[in-house]
């Protein structure tokens, strides 16, 4: 059918039916949260301005003048937060546990593995953070704006959980330090505070509540003290190094909670070669803090990695930095190097001074062996409390970012409403509740494994984001950090993926499954507009792959065995042909489906400054979304409908993926029905009505058409000459799939494989009939349609050639054999009236004058015209008598009159009149003409 003009010329549509085409003229923040300001993850930053198109205006990332309000340099803004986050609870509490079980060699190897993974992940972080400003949410913001809302939202959720678990880990470490110094640390059970599982939970809850109060009241003040806190931690660490070098042999008591051994103290030897040699190799024991669970390589690495997960802290501060493009790489890399050297030196000194007995049975031995034990206590409390506090703040800010982005729709609206003076009170409280849940686990080492897996998954996604962007070759990915390549991203991705499963395969698999479930849920329920606002790497990757495979798809290698319909549906106004749009979507069988529309007009005469089809394209995409069909849209502007259709047939699709079947609405005088406004319509919507303008207008009663009868028949001839299969669809405004699904009265799909204009028996299954049967079979495969029976009507005439093989083998038998050979399940019905009531021989000669098969070049007599109409009316009556329970009818479309014949215009009118009589008052009917074979009997 032909498209209708949305702006002007709305009354010249040649296609009267409520179907598809005869073509007519024209048709019609993410909320910004504050940046992490973190020594683990604190946020606080101004909102970057946005332009009307929704793109973030970053300005010059390296230009301080473009960054008003940015005051932090490399040391205060990046180095301190990263170093402090990477020291966390590990440096004073668990390095001894690692060396005592894994041995010095394995410990150094594990640190190298961990830092190699971190180094390559840092490259990805620096690449993303120097390619644009990072707002609140840190890694969530990076991934969501790169991988899109589905992956970003799911990874962001897991990153939120990682911060929650990290906070629980730090609190557990802080509680251990308190118990060690103020609890019953020796076998006598003396101490100022009691110890036990629930006592420890009480202490942890108290610390968690204290952190909650600090976050609600004074988090900003704490953020400004990061350099001071790091200085305190470094001084405490230096006191430990000095003690190892100067302290002599002594006895170290075994903690009261350690019930795995029956002795109360063990020897600390000081610097000795024998001690070093004894600690070189692995000697795994049991973990007295987790009910005696056996320690192994994976447990040790999980604990180790959990302490060095703070590499995002600097990138999260990009909104506060004077020069992010230089500060983030320099500060992060220098902090990574600094903490690596500190850990390596600490590991060597521990292995050279402390026996494995002490290391395995007293994880907090650093206090007793220190020259100034108070320094270790201060170091433990400041390192763990600051890390836990920053993780709590970080978790709340990620939750706030998720809520502002409406990733989970209205589910997290309480977070946005519960914000006071830029402090997300509701998010902080929700994070605090989840931390309390984590604290019920109790064991620091168990929490550490969960923490490591979740952070590793976040790092994996960050590397994946960078790898994807690099592979797609996105021109706008131009990070100022130059030491990044797809190789670094791939190594980081591979390393994190492997070590996740090394640490704990169950935790790793569970987190990946949870991530995939979140991806699916967000894909199904998350607002679709987010992907358009942020950009999604999935679109870039799909473009990259589709282009590659389209180039590989060679039309010269097509084979009939793998033929599938690739449809071009020409639509005048979608308002009037919704059922047909849906039906063609069913009939495409996984093939290409293009909805085409022609606007009539000239580009030079258009008053608009842009091509009108550009403005209307988004409206048609919204239509496709509303109709829930898998279709592409092609619009063109042309001086005539016929010329526009030729353009669409030639240019629709790409490469070997081009439509092979063109579908037109029928040319008739039926009044169109607006399915968008009709009360009982399943397509009813107000989406395309607004501001007094009705999108997709259609031809009203009394309005003239854009396409005349002769041009419409010429369009039919054009399609066939361009070697495209053709379908003319009539009465599809009567199609109701819901009624078919629930009404048992509608039972059949009918096929009439006979050329009514030239009936014969020699081949009841020619190319056209095969194509017709193929389409009917495809429809019969689909849900709803599958319940219907496929019927083939055999119209056998007695005017057979004397030499016809039908005398030896009846046409019904031949048709049955052909159906079986093509694996088409259908019943065959003979038409008795065909032989008795109609003189086919006489009408055959007359009707051939109206088709392209005619050899006659004479004027048509009025008597023959009238007899032909009576003949069509009789055929129509025969078909109607058998169509009471029919959903869709497929019929044979004869070729139109030859363009060079005498009185061509009159023949066009009679040709269309005969088709109109033939299909009068039938169920939804498709007149089909196939060009090439589409069925195969071979494997």
Query: How far do the termini sit from each other?
Result: 38 Å
Strand percentage: 5-15%
Number of helices: 31
Mean pLDDT: 79
Question: Which residue ranges are poorly predicted, with pLDDT under 50 across at least 5 consecutive positions?
Answer: 1-68, 799-808
Number of beta strands? 18
Query: In which range does the helix fraction lie?
Result: 40-55%
Quickly give the structural class: alpha/beta
> What is the approximate shape?
elongated
Q: Over the alpha carbons, how many angstroms does the gyration radius reach?
A: 38 Å
Task: Write out the strand line-up for the largest beta sheet, numbering strands in chain order.
Answer: 9-8-7-10-13-18-17-14-15-16
The largest sheet, given as strand count, sense and whether it forms a barrel, is:
10 strands, mixed
């Amino acid at each position: 059918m032909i498209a209708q003009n949305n702006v002007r010329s709305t009354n010249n549509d040649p296609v009267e039916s409520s179907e598809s085409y005869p073509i007519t003229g024209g048709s019609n923040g993410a909320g910004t949260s504050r940046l992490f300001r973190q020594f683990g993850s604190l946020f606080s930053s101004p909102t970057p301005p946005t332009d009307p198109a929704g793109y973030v205006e970053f300005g010059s990332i390296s230009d301080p003048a473009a960054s008003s309000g940015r005051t932090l340099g490399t040391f205060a803004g990046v180095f301190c937060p990263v170093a402090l986050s990477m020291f966390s609870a590990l440096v004073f509490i668990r390095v001894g546990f690692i060396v005592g079980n894994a041995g010095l060699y394995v410990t150094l190897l594990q640190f190298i593995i961990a830092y190699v993974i971190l180094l390559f992940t840092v490259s990805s972080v620096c690449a993303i953070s120097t390619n644009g400003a990072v707002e609140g949410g840190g890694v969530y913001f990076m991934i969501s704006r790169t991988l899109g809302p589905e992956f970003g939202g799911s990874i962001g959720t897991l990153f939120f959980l990682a911060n929650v678990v990290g906070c629980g880990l730090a609190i557990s470490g802080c509680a251990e330090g308190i118990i060690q110094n103020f609890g019953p640390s020796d076998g006598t059970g003396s101490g100022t505070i009691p110890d036990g599982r629930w006592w420890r939970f009480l202490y942890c809850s108290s610390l968690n509540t204290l952190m909650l109060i600090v976050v609600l009241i004074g988090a900003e003040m704490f953020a400004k003290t990061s350099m001071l806190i790091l200085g305190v931690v470094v001084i405490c660490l230096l006191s430990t190094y000095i003690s190892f070098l100067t302290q002599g042999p002594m006895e170290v008591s075994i903690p009261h909670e350690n019930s795995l051994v029956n002795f109360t103290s063990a020897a600390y030897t000081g610097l000795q070669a024998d001690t070093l040699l004894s600690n070189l190799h692995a000697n795994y024991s049991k973990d007295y803090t987790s009910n005696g669970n056996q320690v192994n390589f994976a447990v040790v690495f999980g604990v180790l990695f959990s302490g060095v997960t703070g590499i995002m802290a600097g990138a999260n501060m990009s909104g506060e930095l004077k020069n992010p493009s230089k500060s983030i790489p320099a500060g992060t890399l220098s902090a990574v190097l600094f903490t690596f050297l500190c850990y390596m030196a600490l590991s060597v000194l521990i292995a050279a001074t402390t026996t494995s007995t002490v290391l395995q049975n007293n994880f907090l031995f650093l206090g007793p062996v220190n020259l100034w034990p108070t320094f270790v206590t201060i170091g433990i409390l400041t390192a763990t409390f600051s890390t836990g506090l920053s993780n709590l703040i970080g978790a709340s800010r990620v939750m706030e970012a998720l809520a502002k982005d409406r990733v989970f729709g209205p589910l997290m609206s309480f977070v946005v409403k519960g914000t006071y003076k830029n402090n997300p009170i509701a998010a902080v409280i929700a994070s605090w509740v989840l931390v309390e849940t984590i604290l019920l686990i109790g064991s620091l080492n168990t929490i550490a494994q969960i923490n490591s897996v979740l952070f590793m998954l976040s790092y994996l996604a960050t590397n994946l984001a960078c790898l994807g962007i690099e592979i797609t070759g996105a021109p706008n990915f131009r990070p100022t950090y130059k030491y990044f390549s797809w190789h670094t991203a791939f190594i980081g991705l591979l390393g994190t993926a492997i070590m996740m499963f090394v640490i704990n395969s169950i935790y790793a698999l569970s987190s990946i499954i949870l991530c995939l479930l979140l991806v699916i849920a967000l894909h199904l329920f998350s607002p679709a507009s987010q992907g358009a606002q942020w950009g999604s790497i999935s679109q870039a990757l799909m473009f990259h792959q589709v282009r590659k495979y389209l180039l590989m798809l060679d039309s010269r290698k097509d084979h009939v065995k793998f033929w599938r319909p690739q449809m071009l549906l020409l639509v005048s106004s979608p308002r009037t042909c919704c059922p047909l749009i849906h039906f063609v979507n069913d009939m495409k069988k996984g093939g290409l489906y293009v909805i085409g529309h022609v606007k009539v007009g000239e580009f030079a005469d258009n008053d608009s400054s842009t091509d009108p089809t550009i403005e209307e394209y988004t409206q048609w995409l919204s239509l496709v979304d509303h109709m829930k069909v898998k279709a592409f849209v092609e619009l063109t502007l042309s001086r005539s409908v016929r010329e526009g259709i030729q353009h669409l047939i030639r240019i629709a699709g790409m490469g070997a993926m081009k439509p092979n079947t063109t579908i037109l609405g029928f040319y008739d005088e039926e009044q169109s029905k607006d399915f968008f406004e009709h009360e009982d319509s399943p397509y009813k919507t107000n989406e395309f009505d607004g501001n007094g303008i009705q999108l997709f207008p259609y031809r009203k009663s009394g309005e003239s058409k854009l396409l005349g009868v002769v041009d419409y028949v010429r369009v039919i001839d054009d399609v066939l000459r361009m070697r495209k299969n053709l379908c003319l669809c009539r009465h599809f405004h009567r199609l109701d799939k819901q009624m078919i699904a629930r009404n048992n009265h509608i039972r059949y799909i009918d096929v009439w494989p006979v050329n009514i204009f030239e009936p014969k028996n020699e081949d009841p299954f020619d190319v056209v009939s095969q194509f017709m049967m193929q389409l009917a079979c495809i429809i019969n495969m689909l849900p709803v349609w599958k319940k219907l029976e496929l019927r083939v009507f055999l119209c056998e005439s007695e005017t057979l050639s004397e030499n016809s093989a039908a005398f030896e083998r009846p046409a019904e038998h031949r048709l049955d054999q052909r159906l079986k050979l093509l694996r088409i399940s259908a019943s065959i019905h003979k038409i008795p009236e065909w032989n008795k009531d109609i003189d086919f021989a006489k009408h055959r000669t007359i009707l051939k004058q109206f088709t392209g098969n005619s050899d006659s070049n004479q004027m048509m007599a009025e008597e023959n015209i009238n007899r032909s109409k009576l003949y069509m009316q009789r055929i129509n009556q025969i078909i109607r008598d058998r169509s009471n329970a029919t959903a869709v009818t497929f019929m044979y479309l004869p070729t139109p009159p030859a363009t060079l014949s005498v009185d061509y215009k009159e023949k066009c009118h009679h040709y269309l009149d005969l088709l109109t009589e033939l299909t009068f008052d039938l169920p939804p009917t498709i007149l089909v003409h196939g060009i090439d074979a589409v069925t195969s009997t071979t494997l």
